[in-house]
Amino acid sequence: TLFRSIPKVTPEFTRHIEMRWAFGYMPFSGKGGREMGGWMKFREAPETMTDAHIVALVDAWPPALLPHLKGPAPASSLSWALEIVHPRPAMKPDDWLLYRATIDQAGAGYGHTHAGIWTPAGELVALSRQTVTVFG
């Protein structure tokens, strides 16, 4: 399923990223679940894939808690750590990268998640850890 940026809901930069939902439920579906993710790449591939490009790709994904909500609500990262593997595995700027996020714990407006990002060959690119607040 293609995930489209939504004006005034998703960050502006996400329009530059193509995302294919592969598992879990869409944000604001009210269906919950502990995992979500799919494939991502830039709509226009950069000349080379830098660490900054990887940060943008990972940051484009909505928090894994949002499929639990039945409608849009404000949410914010309370903390976010992203570890990019070095040396980075070989990848082309137009490769689809896999993003898979898991909710470790959620309740009372807070959620703790972790995610991994992999190349099409299954090599780890980065690890993400995030604490999210949801106001709704």
UniProtKB/TrEMBL annotation:
<dbReference type="InterPro" id="IPR049450">
    <property type="entry name" value="ACOT8-like_C"/>
</dbReference>
<protein>
    <submittedName>
        <fullName>Acyl-CoA thioesterase II</fullName>
    </submittedName>
</protein>
<dbReference type="InterPro" id="IPR029069">
    <property type="entry name" value="HotDog_dom_sf"/>
</dbReference>
<dbReference type="InterPro" id="IPR042171">
    <property type="entry name" value="Acyl-CoA_hotdog"/>
</dbReference>
<feature type="domain" description="Acyl-CoA thioesterase-like C-terminal">
    <location>
        <begin position="9"/>
        <end position="134"/>
    </location>
</feature>
<dbReference type="Pfam" id="PF20789">
    <property type="entry name" value="4HBT_3C"/>
</dbReference>
